[in-house]
Backbone:
């Protein structure tokens, strides 16, 4: 007996694994793997799409020179240690400007499926939000937006270009909302 596994990321939830068992040699194992992949593709297609809770007027938000993007490693959502100085500067600005609403817009490079990249970008946005909140920025003023591979900073097929797309940007409302 051979067991074949296939996995898919379902946006807004978790990874799903399907095991199909084949009773004969390698050709059947490949067929089982294909069936598992097909089943997971169907499940992912019918799963609810991740719809980030972002303001309806997102065009009022923009990057500003005082806040810097945070870059991530390939297929990772962990804040890199070398981002500490960038984050410290961003936290100081956000604390000094408490009435600005903030959107963390996260992105992924073009490698991987659309669903995987949306989920990865969401995890990156959440990781940056968690880091900002742990450093004293109010979490209730931060909204997350996941773009996956949808808004690339660079469109070439090179590692240098891919690395520019693995980022989370901090956007602020152009006119702050006063209490």
Residues:
């Amino acid at each position: 007996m051979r067991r074949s596994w296939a996995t898919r990321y379902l946006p807004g939830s978790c990874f799903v694994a399907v095991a199909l068992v084949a009773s004969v040699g390698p050709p059947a194992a490949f067929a089982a793997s294909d069936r598992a992949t097909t089943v997971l593709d169907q499940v992912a297609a019918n799963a609810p799409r991740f719809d980030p809770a972002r303001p309806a007027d997102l065009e009022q938000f923009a990057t500003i020179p005082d806040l810097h993007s945070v870059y991530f490693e390939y297929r990772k959502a962990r804040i890199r240690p070398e981002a500490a100085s960038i984050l410290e500067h961003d936290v100081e600005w956000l604390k000094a400007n408490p009435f600005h609403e903030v959107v963390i817009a996260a992105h992924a490079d073009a490698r991987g499926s659309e669903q995987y990249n949306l989920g990865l970008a969401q995890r990156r946005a959440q990781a940056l939000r968690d880091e900002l909140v742990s450093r004293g920025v109010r979490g209730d003023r931060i909204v997350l937006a996941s773009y996956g591979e949808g808004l690339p900073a660079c469109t070439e097929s090179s590692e240098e270009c891919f690395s520019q797309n693995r980022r989370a940007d901090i956007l602020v409302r152009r006119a702050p909302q006063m209490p």
About this structure: Residues 1-30, 47-53 have pLDDT under 50 and may be disordered. The first helix runs from residue 26 to 46. Residues 2-46 form one domain.
